[in-house]
Prior knowledge:
Elements: H1 3-10, H2 22-36, E1 40-41, E2 43-45, H3 50-53, E3 58-60, H4 62-71, E4 77-79, H5 84-93, E5 99-101, H6 110-113, H7 117-131, E6 135-140, H8 145-153, E7 157-159, H9 164-174, E8 177-181, H10 184-193, E9 201-205, E10 210-212, E11 222-225, H11 237-246, E12 251-254, H12 260-265, E13 268-269, H13 272-281, E14 287-291, H14 294-303, E15 308-311, H15 327-338, E16 345-346, H16 350-364
Parallel strand pairs: 1-4, 2-3, 4-5, 6-7, 6-8, 8-11, 9-11, 12-13, 12-14, 14-15
Antiparallel strand pairs: 5-16, 9-10
Amino acid sequence: xxxxxxxxxxxxxxxxxxxxxxxxxxxxxxxxxxxxxxxxxxxxxxxxxxxxxxxxxxxxxxxxxxxxxxxxxxxxxxxxxxxxxxxxxxxxxxxxxxxxxxxxxxxxxxxxxxxxxxxxxxxxxxxxxxxxxxxxxxxxxxxxxxxxxxxxxxxxxxxxxxxxxxxxxxxxxxxxxxxxxxxxxxxxxxxxxxxxxxxxxxxxxxxxxxxxxxxxxxxxxxxxxxxxxxxxxxxxxxxxxxxxxxxxxxxxxxxxxxxxxxxxxxxxxxxxxxxxxxxxxxxxxxxxxxxxxxxxxxxxxxxxxxxxxxxxxxxxxxxxxxxxxxxxxxxxxxxxxxxxxxxxxxxxxxxxxxxxxxxxxxxxxxx
Length: 367
């Protein structure tokens, strides 16, 4: 079922929630949390708005939150404040007795949607024709359950922005080449940091079904899926050049979902957790320009007044799909649980779950 099919099946936010005041919604949510107690667990991704994060029982990145959900066996109802693929991963890693919900089924991920299973299966056939049995697939955890299952079925593993280098190194011990889904930028930045030359990297275009590569096939080590994060791709070389001219003492740190050009010109790059840790451990008065999602940047600004923090792109907007989750949708989801209706439940079938777990396990088992 596609996200839009799921939206149609579950319906849209009832009109009655649109007339409630913020105070009324907050009070109802607090009441439900107190009533359900440990039976309810609300994980919130770092990119969520403050109005939602204030009710989160745990905050973190997508895989971290899914693992916390899996470890929380008391929770019968997990209301995942993130996007669709994150809730899928939580459902994969939790028990049959636990139910996972997404407050707004429209909260998808443009990057994850850039690699569907039909495109991927088609690409795999063509790539095996060209390169034979020399490729192992890897997928960023920011991908659908079906893509994770595909990777698991073909002996590959998932990666996070924190451990991508470690998993890519492992993959090269398994096969001569890797297919990296669905974010070309994380794949390129990671492979380059490990010494793979840019001219040894090709790009698979899923729209045209063409391998974009000018080199000799024998030298091709990395096949990058032509996908990207629509948020992180909005940080540009021009943003960096402008800051270098006007504030050369400001340190620039970006997420590796940014383009190779942006990452290479920055002072530092790393996962969401890495960025948070760098800000927290920096000396007071340090000047930062951060290239990642705006809700997180704003939260870092609020939480660290001792630092001088700005967004690398002054015109940046928060992630639109993450911002689908708001107080009205969170309240609707929680009240539907209390009423026994359980709107917006996320379920992954057993076969897909088993194959996806294989990909996740290969990552988690790395030392």
